[in-house]
Amino acid sequence: MWHAMWLRRIDNKIVAARQREAEQEHGRQRRPSVPDWIVELGIGAGDPLPPRSTSVTATPHKRRRLSDRNEARRLLTSGLPVCPHCRPDQRLGILE
Fold first, then answer.
1. Selection from 76, 53, 82, 79 nearest residue 66 by Cα
2. pTM of this prediction?
């Protein structure tokens, strides 16, 4: 009787561990991709400043927002100044 009780407990722990692993794997597969760029916002009305690579600025805060490649290209071609450190215009293939 005692062995059967422990066997049930062990089986239940194994089932719970497998379920946890499956949920974690599901979460990893459904995680959205990290945006390529971060747009810095100016003080005041939220005017965008130059987009920067996530390798330069990895975490957004209240004066930065995440941006995808298309939005970064659109902002740079609309006349936004270029970040002199990461040169997003060169990395995005935008000519002067």
1. 53
2. 0.46
